[in-house]
Amino acid sequence: MARPYIFISYSRQDRDFVEKLADELRDAAIHTWTDLENISAGQDWAKELERGLLAASALVYVSSKHSSQSRWMDAELNAFIKKQGRVIPIVIDDAGANNLPLPLRRIQWADFRGPFQPALKSLLDGIRGLQGSSPIATPKARSKGYVFISYADEDANFVADLKVFLKKQGYAYWDFRESERDYQADYSLELEEVIKNAAGTLSVVSPEWKRSATALQELHFSREVQTPVFLLKVRDPGPTLAIAGMTYIDFLTKGKDGFSKLDGEMRRKGL
How far apart are CA 25 and CA 8, in angstroms? Predict the structure, then answer.
């Protein structure tokens, strides 16, 4: 096949999803390769599969409750990684998120567990990035720069209000759930650069934040690289060694008045 294409690695039990995905990718002018589409009756299935795999521009790995039981998917992934191919994982159910193969766990994946179209857009950004246009948008520098938001999913409602406040005050922000990502970059390395270049880190403190290893790593790394940290206490996490002795902004008892305090603290830090 002369034109560039994307190889889709999947379990046959996820065929309905993959057929829909392939149709959507074709509508977006992305050429795809699947065994159902590209292997004709009478052809040597294993040879055609190998040929299709090794000539692909990238591999989309469909992670699901079925993929972890597929020896063929393991073989496809290992062969593609061996030839130093670029892989974009996608997750279609909770089991898929929990059972990603070890080589893919540090690569940002597109999440199809929710609405299809936003996940498709994320996947298309990743694919098009491989074709020459970077899918990651560096946070646009405003006069006050951007801040990194560290939080647990359970605090998303508060974070939505926080983003409104930041926009009104002239701050940009970086949130991995919303900001465009580089799907081929090691997530930890990308996050290091984001935090290093941020004007500050806003840590939304709650019981779930406390239990998140990632959130605590973001806090410790921010302090290590001397990015100013602002603790926003939205729900009581209980005694927490990681933030013992640190000053926090109280949203628990003061509610939205906490935003005025946050604004003052950020100005005091020169943001």
Answer: 11
The CATH-assigned architecture of domain 146-268 is: 3-Layer(aba) Sandwich (3.40)
CB 64 within 8 A of CB 96: yes
Contact 56, 85 (CB under 8 A): yes
Which of 237, 197, 243, 199 minimizes the C-alpha distance to 219? 243
Percent of the chain with pLDDT over 70: 83
Give how far the C-alpha of residue 200 lies from the chain's centroid of Cα atoms, to the nearest Å: 21
Q: How far apart are CA 5 and CA 59, in angstroms?
A: 9
Whether 6-130 shares its CATH topology with 146-268 is answered yes
Pairing of β 110-111 and β 58-63? unpaired
Q: What pLDDT, in 10s, does the model give residues 90-135?
A: 999 999 998 888 888 878 889 999 889 889 988 988 888 775 433 3
Contact 73, 10 (CB under 8 A): yes
| Total-model pTM | 0.49
SS3 227: coil
- Looking at domain 6-130, its CATH architecture is 3-Layer(aba) Sandwich (3.40)
pLDDT digits (tens, 9 = 90+) for 83-95: 778 899 999 999 9
pLDDT score for 137: 36
For residue 107, the model assigns a pLDDT of: 84
| CB contact at 8 A, 152 and 212 | yes
Give DSSP secondary structure letters for 17-38. HHHHHHHHHHHTT--EE-HHHH
